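hey
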């Protein structure tokens, strides 16, 4: 019983000594971390306000804001460790070894992050643009460090890893797209009247942009009709709906002016055997 009491007294004495020795330093270290968190939030908000005035893209602004917060918090963490008397050089060396192992295990993730940084800073496309890449196309809904999200007209989404984008051939349509509509009219039709009817049909549709102006004119000569090409510009979200609406409007406009759109014809000759 006496030995147990003596052991408890030693433990209590050791705990008191450690508390007296490291307690104030630990308290100061915690206060330093709390201050670092608060200063990091303030620096992040200040960075966000500055970047907003510079009109940077949201992904870039968000990335820079996070980097500033992490740098400030890391600086205060180093100050806290120094206050506790931790030797930083062996710690940094150990973190380097661990970091190398993590890098080897997560090459794909790091590749996506590097590619994401490349996309964010080089800006080959922006949120809201319509792009075609890696056999996929759609409106850019989100750009993050690891992936880019495209939206399809059928309301589905495609998530593309950023490393699949960088280095590939990219077709960026921007925020507008050009429709390619072909109309066949009979050779004996009044071509000026036909072009005028198509132009009026395009102008009446609210989805068609006035600038840039639609391109309308004879594009080629077929066997039994003349092909008139109509290439209006529409916003990327209106590309699908406008295509059907304009085909119907053009058909009704030509019929209203009695402009003939000949049906496909094929002549078959039967030759008697000799």
């Amino acid at each position: 019983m006496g030995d147990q009491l003596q052991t408890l007294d030693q433990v209590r004495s050791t705990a008191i000594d450690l508390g007296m020795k490291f307690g104030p330093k630990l308290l100061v270290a915690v206060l330093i971390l709390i201050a670092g968190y608060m200063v990091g939030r303030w620096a992040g908000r200040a960075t966000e306000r500055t970047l907003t005035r510079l009109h940077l893209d949201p992904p870039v602004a968000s990335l820079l804001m996070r980097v500033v917060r992490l740098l400030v918090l890391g600086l205060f963490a180093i100050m806290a460790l120094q206050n506790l008397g931790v030797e930083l050089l062996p710690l940094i060396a150990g973190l380097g070894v661990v970091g190398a192992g993590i890098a080897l295990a997560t090459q794909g993730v790091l590749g996506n992050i590097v590619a994401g940084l490349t996309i964010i800073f080089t800006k080959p496309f922006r949120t809201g643009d319509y792009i075609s890449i890696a056999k996929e196309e759609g409106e850019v809904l989100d750009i993050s460090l690891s992936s880019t999200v495209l939206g399809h007209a059928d309301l589905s989404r495609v998530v593309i890893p950023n490393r699949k984008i960088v280095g590939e051939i990219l077709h960026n349509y921007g925020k507008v797209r050009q429709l390619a509509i072909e109309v066949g009219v009979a050779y004996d039709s009044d071509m000026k009247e036909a072009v005028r009817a198509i132009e009026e049909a395009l102008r009446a549709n609210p989805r068609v942009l006035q600038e840039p102006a639609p391109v309308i004119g004879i594009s080629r000569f077929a066997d039994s009709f003349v092909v008139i090409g109509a290439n209006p510009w529409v916003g990327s979200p209106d590309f699908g709906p406008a295509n059907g609406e304009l085909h119907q409007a053009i058909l009704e406009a030509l019929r209203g002016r009695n402009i003939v759109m000949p049906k496909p014809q094929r002549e078959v000759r039967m030759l008697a055997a000799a």
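The CA atoms of residues 98 and 185 lie 72 Å apart. Strands lie at 130-133, 136-143, 147-151, 157-161, 171-174, 176-178, 181-185, 215-221, 226-231, 233-235.
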